[in-house]
Amino acid sequence: MFVNRVKELEALHGEHRAKRASFSVVYGRRRVGKTALLSEFIKNKKHIYLYITQSDLNSQLEAFVKQIKPFVNEAYAKHLSFKSFEEALEFVATLALDEKLLLVIDEYQNITLMDSAFSSKLQRVWDEKLQHANIYLILCGSALSMMQSEVLNYSAPLYGRRTSQFHIQSVKFEHIKEFLPHLGKLEQMQDYSSYGTIPKYHNDYDESLTFMQNIEQKILSTNSYLYAEGNFLLKNEISDAATYFSILESISKGNTKIGNIASSLQVTSSHLTKYLQKLLELDILQKDVPVTENNPLKSKFGRYKIKDKFLNFWFYYVFKNYNFLEIEQSKAVLDEIALNFNDRFVSFAFEDYVIEDIWGNPKKYFDFLPKKVGRWWNNKEEIDIVVFDEEHICFIECKWQENVKRESVMSDLIKKSANISHEKIASYKVITKEDFLHSFVS
Predict the structure, then answer these.
(1) CB of 136 within 8 A of CB of 101?
(2) CA 70/CA 59 separation, integer angstroms
(3) Global confidence as pTM
(4) What domains are defined for the chain?
(5) Which residues contact 165 (CB under 8 A, 6 or more apart)?
């Protein structure tokens, strides 16, 4: 199923219309929908699409030649062959084309594993031939570390050649209903808090089953691909995985400050710095600071969180429970999910959703247009969401509960807000599970 990606498609079409050669880099984690986006984009356009597998380079070259043949006359095509990818790419640059030809190399990192000099060779062909042809080159990759080292970083061989880049992110909560149109709002929030918003995962969710049945059969079962997904995603990026796995498991348990992570692993904070930085670069972690910080990079209140909700769920319920799950004793894990899933996962996911909804639909909440939206905390207090512009500020408490005593929560919120010094017009809101289910929050 192809859902959303409207802005990305518009930008790709803009590159295709440009009166020059184009070179785009499309990257993002596995399962996020990069190939679906490119498949939609190349429809009804002249294209050569190469999906690079982890076989030998000669096989990839043969596949490339097969796709070049339709662009030359039949007699010439019979004898068409090349000694190298470079030679084939140079030939493509000479094709007589009445419209721009799309040349897509998907899973680009695989070809650089087979030929470590490939990016340098492609750089030469681009500089000398392709950039002067009626070509739109797209390199697409899932291994973020390799895409950075080969294409995106300043020191990369292909740095400075691209005319655009697209970091494909997971979809927003609002698109879950497009994948799963028969889910109620409660089930959508449960799905968001566990499966996250990676398109591939939603395609595998079975609406005929209950939420817990989906968890049991699609994630906790050793026969399901999601059971091994965390291992697959990380080992694709990281060779020395043990320390990284320990860090992510610790964060999934609620240790979000570097000192707390270090204490849980019985190491020093300085020992963790390089590992945390790597996880940030790979887009696996994000580092948050209080929304009111004037200089976020120097904040002493940084907290780490796992960006992908599925990966967070996987580390907490799957990775740490391998001893049960490997011998097919999922009941203990299901009991744990029933016990603490709402408090540990849904309540925080609900906050994330409200932040997302505020950015998407600010007029539903305020008479002003927010400039900043985020969480706030100091050493003693926390406020779920603080929203402000130059003149206004709103303090919000989110409660994934029913029958909330709003007056009491509001009173506590007003007291906590006194910790934030400001001269703005202040307002306060309490947003609850009931508000969400009864459509105050869309």
Answers:
(1) yes
(2) 19
(3) 0.87
(4) 6-167 (3.40.50.300), 174-342 (1.10.10.10), 361-437 (no CATH)
(5) 24, 25, 26, 27, 152
Q: Tell me how far the alpha carbon of residue 178 is from its chain's centroid.
A: 18
Amino acid present at 224: S
**For the segment 132-166, what is each residue's pLDDT rounded down to a tens digit?**
999 999 999 987 778 888 898 888 999 999 999 99
Greatest alpha-carbon span in the chain: 83
Q: Do 256 and 305 form a contact (C-beta atoms < 8 A)?
A: yes
Going by C-alpha positions, the residue among 212, 210, 208 that lies closest to residue 221 is 212
**Of 183, 193, 188, residue with least CA distance to 342:** 193
Q: Could you read off the pLDDT of 410-439 as tens digits, one per residue?
A: 999 999 999 999 999 999 999 999 999 987
Phi, psi torsion values for 16, nearest 5 degrees = -65, -35
Res. 347 pLDDT band, cuts 50 70 90: very high
pLDDT digits (tens, 9 = 90+) for 362-410: 999 999 999 999 999 999 999 999 999 999 999 999 999 989 999 999 9
Say which DSSP state 54 is in: S
Q: What is the CA radius of gyration of the chain?
A: 25
Predicted local distance difference test score (pLDDT) of residue 244: 94
321/11 Cα distance (integer angstroms)? 44
Q: How many CB atoms lie within 10 A of CB 398?
A: 24
Alpha carbon separation from 328 to 331, 335, 339, 395 (Å, rounded)? 9, 14, 20, 46
pLDDT band for position 319 (50/70/90)? very high
283 Rama sector, left if φ>0, alpha if ψ -120 to 50, beta otherwise: left
Residue 115 sits at the vertex; the CA angle it makes with 110 and 121, to the nearest 5 degrees, is: 110
- Burial letters 265-291, b for 16+ CB under 10 A, else e: beeeeeebeebbebbeebbbbebbbbb
Taking CA atoms, 184 is separated from 180, 190, 233, 358, in Å, by 9, 10, 30, 21
Q: How far apart are CA 149 and CA 112, in angstroms?
A: 11
Q: CA 107, CA 236: separation in Å to the nearest integer?
A: 12
Q: Which carries the bigger pLDDT value, residue 237 or residue 151?
A: 151
Compute φ and ψ for 368, nearest 5 degrees. Answer: -130, 165
Sign of the dihedral through C-alpha 399, 401, 406, 412: negative
